[in-house]
Amino acid sequence: MSVWDRYSDEQRNEYIQFLQVYGALSNLFRQKKGEDIPHLDSKFQETIFAKIFNCQNVDIGNTPHDVLSVFGDKRIGIGLKTWMASKPSFQKVMQLKRYQKEINNFQDDNEALVYKVSEIKNERMISDYERLGLSETDNIYHYITRDKGLFNIHECAYPLVDLSNLQITDSTHSALTWTDGRKDYKYTYGDSQIWQKFDPGKKDTLLLNRFDIKIIEDPFTFLLQSYLNLTESVYEVHDDIVEVYLPLYSYRSKEVEEKSGLNAWNAAPKNKGSDTVRPLNEVYIPIPREFHKKFPNFFVENIFEFENYRNAYQGEKKDRPEVRFHLQLPNGKEIPALVTQDNMKGLQSGSNVEYDENGKRFGQSALGQWLLVDVLGLKERKLVTREWLQMKETDSVRLWRKKNDYSLINIDFAPIGAFEAFMNDDPIPQNEE
Torsions phi, psi of 392, nearest 5? Predict the structure, then answer.
């Protein structure tokens, strides 16, 4: 069964209607008259797909999957794309500029270069599987090709590259092309891009729907009249989500500290005189004091009042008041978490009273296991640095919750520079696609 078939008829029809409406407005975006191929903006496609099919938008800039669909216990990552013409063509699928120095070591050996580029692509894919709780086999590309007066909706498999079956098919001064027997790929030297060939004739590719687009000759008059009609009635926009960002580094030093934050595992043993090292996944996310001053009501209603109440507590340490809630990870798991330490400076997982399905008490390692080990791929006791994070194309996390609900907070990675932009009230940057 295709992923498309898992959605209801009502959802599919509504999705197509939105695409038809957007395509009808194509003349808004044209500088030349007479073009018959309808326009479709990829960000609109992404937004409307997530809205209609109740998907989670999981794109944080240059990540492999744009949206996440959940069907019971099956989680499917979906890459969304659109381009003109339905004939087989190569399309950009991954940017590797941050790996260019590493890749350049293999410029004189085409076979080694193809293997290295394919390996990096797979590592990026697997990191997203861990982030989102995906399998290796169920993910897809959903793409729309645009011909004269037509939109065509396709779906195809989105696999890892088979590293054991790489075969170079072409080599020029500007690009290297290869196949793994299932998909055809190309790496272009000038922009460090991986391209994939999309071919509607492949057996793992389905044509889901084809429909006409009737382009409005004068969309400007249409839009203005529609807006004037809309403003004649009173309406309200309700924003029920509160969103913030936190750094994965020290806001003051601009670096990941050697014995705290994501390197908390490198701190001295908890028991004085002990040689027992801390677990690699024992971390916390730094919360700058400046953040609390600007957003005192995100984690609890007035964190400074709570801090005074906690500091005045004189009972047993295990019963000390903490700001407790659950973190919703993008892989579907929920873990207990808290804001703790002096000056309420640390966001970490852990609970004194809650247990997992195996009866094991949650510890500080649950967040670090997902964030640092599973997704970012730290496998050994190597200090995390800001530069290392930026190679992973992140240095911040995004947190959001419903208004007036402090019990559940969602978390995901954010693009490089997101926290600094957030604190300065600037637009959140997007990593280069």
Answer: -85, 5
219 in helix, strand or coil? helix
What angle is formed at CA 249 by the lines to CA 243 and CA 250, rounded to 5 degrees? 100
CA angle (326 as vertex; 64, 375 as ends), nearest 5: 25
Token digits of residue 100:
């260019």
Judge if 221 and 260 occupy the same domain.
no
pLDDT at 353: 41
Mark whether 182 and 138 lie in a shared domain: yes
150 has which bridge partners?
147, 212
The gap from C-alpha 192 to its chain's centroid, in whole angstroms, comes to 21
CA atoms within 13 A on the CB side of 160: 19
Is 428 domain-assigned? Answer: no
| Average pLDDT, integer, range 239-261 | 94
Print the domain residue range for 66.
Answer: 3-231
98 or 34: whose pLDDT is higher? Answer: 98
Q: What mean pLDDT value characterizes the chain?
A: 91
> Residue 123: what residue type?
E
- At which residue do the structure tokens 């999309």 appear? 198
In this prediction, residue 369 carries a pLDDT of 93
Residues in the chain, total: 433
With a threshold of 0.85, does the pTM exceed it?
Answer: yes
**Does residue 134 sit in the same domain as residue 274?**
no
Measured between its terminal Cα atoms, the distance across the chain in Å is 30
At residue 153's C-alpha, the angle toward residues 212 and 12, to 5°, is 85
Q: Is the pLDDT of residue 33 over 90?
A: no
Distances (CA, A) of 396 to 238, 298, 421: 27, 17, 11
The answer on 121 and 219 residing in a single domain is: yes
Tell me the sheet residues that pair with 327: 335, 409
> Number of folded domains in the chain?
2
As given in the structure block, the two tokens for residue 9 are 């008829």
Q: How far apart are CA 335 and CA 315, in angstroms?
A: 26
Q: Judge if 135 and 278 occupy the same domain.
A: no
Return the pLDDT at 231: 66
Reported confidence tier of residue 112, pLDDT bands at 50, 70, 90: very high
Q: Are the C-beta atoms of residues 299 and 290 closer than 8 Å to each other?
A: no
